[in-house]
C-alpha cells in the first residue's frame, strides 16, 4: 500500500485541528442515550457511555457489511443496506479516518447519506485510499442529502475526475459547509473543476486544498470563482505550487472588493517579494480578510516592507503569519514602524520565536510589533523610542512600555 502520510503532511493549523478530533474520546460516535435506549426497546436506566460502540466497532461493522455485499447475491443488497441504515441511524458524527477502507466503503456510506432519514452531520474518511470512484459515489449521494455539513477526504488518492464529481454536487448541495481535500492528487485540472463548483455554490464556508499540486492555472480559476462566491470564508492552499504569478491572480480578485474570504493560507507556495507586493497592495482596498498565512515563502525584507505598508492602512487584518520567510531584523523593523499607530494585532515571525543572540534580541525588543496601548476603548499612541538611549518610552496613561507589552506578547505566542 502506498504510504500517503509520507507524501502529505498537514500544515501546522490543519495538524492541530486533526489532533483535536482524533484525541477526543468516542462520545461523538455515540448515539444520544435516549435514542440508544429507544432503539433497544428498553425502559431501563440510561445506557452508560462505555457501552456505546467505538470507532473500532463501527469500523468492524462496515468491514462486515461490504464483505456481505461481495459474497451475497445482488438481490440481498437491499437487506444489507437496510441493516446499515438502521445501525447507523442514531449517529450524527462518524470518524473513520485512517482505516484504509478503500472505495468499497463509499458504496455503503453513500447509501446511508442518500437515504432521507440520515442524521449524519460530519463524516471523516481521511486517509482511506479513496479514489475517483469513491469520491464520485459520495458526490452522487450528496445530491439529495440534506444533513451532512462537514466532509473530510484529506490524504486520499482523489484525482481530477473525483474533483469534478464533487464540484458538480457543490452547485446543487446547499447544506455542506466544510470540504477537506488536502493531500490528494487534484492538480490543475481538478482545481479548475472545483472553481466551477465554488462559483455556483452558496453554502460552503471552508475549503481545504493543501498539498494538491495546484499551480498558476488552478489558482487563476479559483481566484475568478472567489469573485462570484459570497459564502466561502476560509481557503487553505498551503504546500502547493501557486507561486507569485498565481498570487497575482488572487490579488486581482481581491482588488475587485468582491472576495468574502476571512482566512487565507498560502504557506509554502514559492511566493517571492513580487507576489507579496501584489497581494499587499490589493488588500489595502475593501476586503474582509482577517487571517493571512504566508509562512515558508521567500518574501524577504522587501516582502515584509510591503506587508508593513499594508498593516498601516488595513484595519481588518488580525493575524499575519510571516514565519520562515527569509526576513531579517530590517524587515521586522519595517513591520514595526508601520504599525506603531494602528490597532493591536498578532504578527508571527520566526525571528520573534528564535532570538539567536543578545544583540538581535535587544533590537527585537525595541522594534517588535506592539500596536497601541490597551488603555481606554480607543487606546493611545504615545509609545515610542527615546532618541538618545534608544529605549522604549512609557505610555503616560498607564506607565507601560512597548517592551513590557513585548514580553506579554511573547508569553502568549
From TrEMBL:
Coiled coil: which residue ranges? none
Per its record, what are the GO molecular function terms?
Answer: GTPase activator activity; small GTPase binding
Taken from the record, one Pfam family name reads LRR_6
* InterPro entries xrefs: Leu-rich_rpt (IPR001611), LRR_dom_sf (IPR032675), RanGap (IPR027038)
Protein origin, superkingdom: Eukaryota
Name-wise, this protein is Uncharacterized protein
The record's listing under PANTHER family reads: RAN GTPASE-ACTIVATING PROTEIN 1
A GO BP entry is: nucleocytoplasmic transport
Q: Which GO terms describe its cellular component?
A: cytosol; nucleus; perinuclear region of cytoplasm
Sequence intervals crossing the membrane: none
Q: Where is this region: Disordered?
A: 1-53
Q: Where is the composition biased (Basic and acidic residues)?
A: 1-29
Q: Sorted alphabetically, which keywords does the UniProt record give? A: GTPase activation, Leucine-rich repeat, Repeat
